[in-house]
Amino acid sequence: MQVATKLSRFSYKISNGFFFNSTRVNFSADAAFNSAMSQLKLSDNLNFSNADLRNAYFTAAKLCHPDLNKTKDSDELSSKFLKITEAYEYLQQHNATNPLMKRRGANEEDIDWTHYISKSEEQLYRDACQDILGLDAETVEESKKCSLFRDWLKGKTDAAFHWNNFFMLHGGLAPMLRNEKIINITSGEFGGRRRKRLFRKKPQ
């Protein structure tokens, strides 16, 4: 089944078989879309919500952990996890740009994660970051957004395997902290450009 959607001013990187858009293209959600849906076991749920996608990603990520795959090596499992992450982020983007789904979600940066992340889930994540990685959760969340860090995760070092194994069990590379508080700061003496600075809410 072919699903065509017009996209304007939208681009995304070639990755895992996904092609590049620059200004206006006819996007045919066939091989790439079906592959992503299959990897996350969402093929029977074309009208998935952000919550459905998030839950499917968490489940698929956990299934990549070495404790559940004794016969597969770490390289293969890490590669599978990162491909699943690409599929998740691709579908997250699709969910935001497809007019049929636009009301359901948005880009991750625009989503109020308070609706998806409970206080107890966030606290468990904070504790895991400290106990397993020795870092605060905010540092881990910022690392997820860094392209250099993501490239490093593709490496075959023991440290990269350790971090990948952590993410497999703790929400992958999806946001795991609740919403950010956005503060607008006006720059310029006469009310010039406004810029946004983001501050994460401290845990209750």
Describe the protein in words:
This protein is an alpha+beta fold. It contains seven helices and four strands, in the order E-E-H-H-H-H-H-H-H-E-E. It has helices at 31-39, 50-62, 74-97, 119-133, 137-144, 147-153, 158-169, and strands spanning 4-8, 24-28, 180-186, 194-200. It has a two-stranded antiparallel sheet with strand order 1-2. A two-stranded antiparallel sheet has the order 3-4. A hairpin with a 7-residue loop joins strand 3 and strand 4 (194-200). Helix 1 crosses helix 3 (74-97) and helix 3 (74-97) crosses helix 7 (158-169). The longest helix is centred in the middle third of the chain and has 24 residues, at 74-97. It is globular, with a radius of gyration of 18 Å.
Give a brief rundown of this model.
The chain is α+β, with helices and mostly antiparallel strands and 204 residues long.
Query: Total helix count?
Result: 7
Name the assembly state. single chain
Percent helix, as a range, is 40-55%
Strand order of the largest sheet: 1-2
Averaged pLDDT, please? 76
- The percentage of residues in β strands lies in 5-15%
Find the structural class using helix and strand composition.
alpha+beta
Secondary-structure element order, N to C = EEHHHHHHHEE
Largest sheet: 2 strands, antiparallel
Give the CA-CA distance, first to last residue.
Answer: 48 Å
Count of beta strands: 4
Features:
12% strand, two-stranded antiparallel ribbon, globular, alpha+beta, single chain, 204 residues, disordered N terminus, 7 helices
Mind sketching the topology for me?
Blueprint: E1 4-8, E2 24-28, H1 31-39, H2 50-62, H3 74-97, H4 119-133, H5 137-144, H6 147-153, H7 158-169, E3 180-186, E4 194-200
Antiparallel strand pairs: 1-2, 3-4
Helix pairs in contact: 1-3, 2-3, 3-7
